[in-house]
Amino acid sequence: MKLAISYAFFALVATVMNIAAQELAISIYDGTFGIPLSVFFGTAVGLVVKYFLDKRYIFRFRTRNVIHSGQTFVLYVLMGLATTTIFWGFEFGFHHFFASREMRYLGGVIGLAIGYIAKYHLDKHYVFKDRVA
């Protein structure tokens, strides 16, 4: 139960960082590609934050060396591609149907929640399976 609470808390932290990064990006550039760029920027920030939190506190994973660390991060990103499509689908879908910033973010939060549940299982079985103690 403690693991589930920790994972949910870290997912919340990464979600807040993602949305905050989107707000920052859209405040800097609100042109033609402002929304897609802000979503991409938020995704990158959330991904990095979640990776370090998951690696250290959820999976207690230690890499053997710099190469292993890089390989682990690349695998983490690859596992995130499917879950990112869920997140983006909800965020852009809500943006399309409701045409408001608040609803776009609500769609993003829903998509992230669904994606993080799937991501935990992918990471457990494929990314952090060869844990080094």
Model description:
With about 130 residues, the protein is an all-alpha fold. It is built from 4 helices and no strands. The longest helix has about 35 residues. The radius of gyration is 15 Å and the shape is globular.
- Look at the helices and sheets and give the structural class: mainly alpha
The residue-averaged pLDDT reads: 95
* Rg from Cα: 15 Å
Q: How many angstroms does the end-to-end distance come to?
A: 22 Å
Estimate the helix proportion, in percent. Answer: over 70%
Tally of alpha and pi helices: 4
Number of strands: 0
Number of domains: 1
* Elements, N to C (H/E): HHHH
Low-confidence stretches: none
- Strand composition percent: under 5%
Q: What is the molecular shape? A: globular
Main sheet?
Answer: none
Secondary-structure map:
Elements: H1 2-28, H2 34-58, H3 66-98, H4 101-127
Helix pairs in contact: 1-2, 1-4, 2-3, 3-4
Summarize, please.
The chain is mostly helical.
Descriptors:
single chain; 133 residues; mainly alpha
